[in-house]
Design brief:
24% strand; 7-stranded antiparallel β-sheet; PSTPO5379-like fold; Putative_hydro-lyase; 2 domains; 5-stranded antiparallel β-sheet
Amino acid sequence: MMSGLHTAYPFPFKKRDDVDRSAAQAMRNECRNGGFSGSTSGRAPGFVQANLVILPKEFALEFATFCLRNSRACPLLDVTEVGSPEPSMVAPGADLRTDLPKYRIWINGKLEAEVTDITDVWRNDFVGFVLGCSFSFEAALAREGLEPRNVTMKSNVSMYRTTHPNIKSGPFEGNLVVSMRPYPPSSLPDVIRITSSFPGAHGGPIYKGKTDATPHCSFLGIGNLGLPDFGDPVPIGEGEIPVFWACGVTPQVAIETAAPAPPIAITHAPGHMFVTDLVDDEMRVGQPPG
């Protein structure tokens, strides 16, 4: 059947009736019950993972506009009703207050705490934004023999602040954040083909680095690829190049630089994503679901 759900791109999801979604629900229950608080990279393979931003209603319209203006980094998958913690389009019955492994709480643009449950700070004026995540295409890459190294290492992906500004909306701007996965140049055509078919998960790469073992990326303003701003270091092998994707941590930078800053905001902790009920092929475009 066809749902009414769209990403920032003009493609509806094709949500199928024959999919067993129990693995995603089990992953969320494990978080809800306090049994898991780690990175979700490589977890619940095949299910769409998502970034999370929760804001007071008064900031919701300007943030939604920010997402639309910067849809490569912030592809909207779902927006909750005011005061509701249920992302009913992508995970009916889920609870955004408990179903992620780790959250960040921001007060006036400053990171105040990382917690595993936000029930005690939930407000009736909150609006939740569920945004696409590049973890969603990692299983598709692995199926074609291109498993990202962070998955192989069972680590978080490397994420970096850049010097490239986002398009401003109200108080939200900041600079783009990118994730990095290394590949040999010969693999790039397939990597681009696969990831570009997931526009709701940041799509294809936005930039590729050089093969000269340079430990930085001057074009993006990254000083040391071995020292990511978020996530874990992922080594770049001999003959490989760093490949960069827009990243859903971008809104967190927009929150910390917002003027005026929201009095409170809640996000996922980088790499600790919300696992939706959607399977990756339901979000894939340009080819029929597998």
